[in-house]
Amino acid sequence: MAAGRTLRQADAAIVRRAIVIKVVPVWHNVTRFSNEFFCGRRCRMVRVICIANQKGGVGKTTTAINLSASLAVFEKRTLLVDCDPQANATSGMGLDKNALSQTLYQGLLGEAAGQGLVRDSLLPCLKVIPANVELIGFEVEMMAAPEREKCLRELIAPLRPQFDYIILDCPPSLSLLTLNALTAADSLIIPLQCEFYALEGLGQLLQTVKRVKRALNPGLEITGILLTMFDRRTNLAHQVAAEAEKHFKDLVFKTTIPRNIRLGEAPSFGKPIILYDATSQGALSYIELAREIMTPTFETSAASA
Ligand SMILES: Nc1ncnc2c1ncn2[C@@H]1O[C@H](COP(=O)(O)OP(=O)(O)OP(=O)(O)O)[C@@H](O)[C@H]1O
Ligand SMILES: [Mg+2]
């Protein structure tokens, strides 16, 4: 578990690297090239990970931003796609959602190619497809369109060869946008806030996943349940963790995300936590989550999906 971890040597190295990436991109490109060469990463399959839970405020966007940034710090070429009209992932990455002429909306309607929507971020390995409030229109405009659940899958298909990971941040509903994300994804992470009613609604989400798997995306796997805003001092947090482990067993990530004030502050500075406070418990937890996702078990299960 990440909560209560001390700053280990490996973490300190990653944090140092994050800081260097910020100031010396040339150095970063050199190391990236050598890593790709020696690890043979160009041959590996891209993984599209959907972050979904129809419950609001459970840490989907915080996870999407900070998992993406942590994977990028490990020099994985990562694309964060904001699939929520609230556009919190867009603003949390420092993009002005009101100043964007083209967003995911135009892409989903077929008015723009995916490549034209990709924006840079403060981390060289992390790119973003932003959203804004226009995205609400997608649901209405596509209501009667055939194959409307496959728009996102088709949009990102040509981008797959350029990225190791594509992370999809979903809105708090089981709407057409979430269905698009589930249809486009190889795997699903479900953030679960450690509070009363945490498991409520999860049955409905799992039923939806089952239906999507049957009708639209047979390869979709649940990568894991992520316990968020975990406060180790409260009995309730431990009870929710025990309940989740009882129901979902190994599907619960070993990493838990603690309630951490720095994680709450970072979006208002338009930065992932690793660039806002790299030594905070929040930053270390998301680094740990990225490490868990990159382990061979997850790589293998995704490859077989
Ligand atoms: N681990 C954490 N510690 C402290 N604050 C957190 C943590 N995770 C998220 N928050 C804060 O909680 C709020 C909700 O988080 P977030 O926006 O990530 O949830 P969400 O599931 O994406 O919400 P929505 O359903 O509205 O899209 C935000 O203000 C965020 O900064
Ligand atoms: Mg959100």
Notes on the protein architecture:
This protein has 305 residues and is an alpha/beta fold. The chain has a single domain (9-304), classed as Rossmann fold (3-Layer(aba) Sandwich). The protein contains 15 helices and seven strands. The protein has a seven-stranded mixed β-sheet, with helices on both faces. Strand 3 and strand 4 (126-129) form a beta hairpin. Helix 1 crosses helix 2 (25-39) and helix 3 (60-73) crosses helix 14 (281-293). The chain starts with 8 loop residues before the first helix and ends with a helix. The relative contact order is 0.18. The model is unreliable at 1-7, 19-45 and 300-305 (pLDDT under 50). It binds adenosine-5'-triphosphate (ATP) and magnesium ion. Residues 60-61, 84, 88 line the site of magnesium ion.
> What strand line-up does the widest sheet have?
3-4-2-5-1-6-7
Which structural class matches the secondary elements?
A: alpha/beta
Structural domain count: 1
How many strand segments? Answer: 7
The set of bound ligands, ions and cofactors reads: adenosine-5'-triphosphate, magnesium ion
Strand content: 5-15%
Shape: globular
Look up the CATH topology.
Rossmann fold
Question: What is the end-to-end distance?
Answer: 27 Å
CATH architecture tag: 3-Layer(aba) Sandwich
Largest beta-sheet details = 7 strands, mixed
Calculate Rg over CA atoms. 18 Å
Count of helical regions: 15
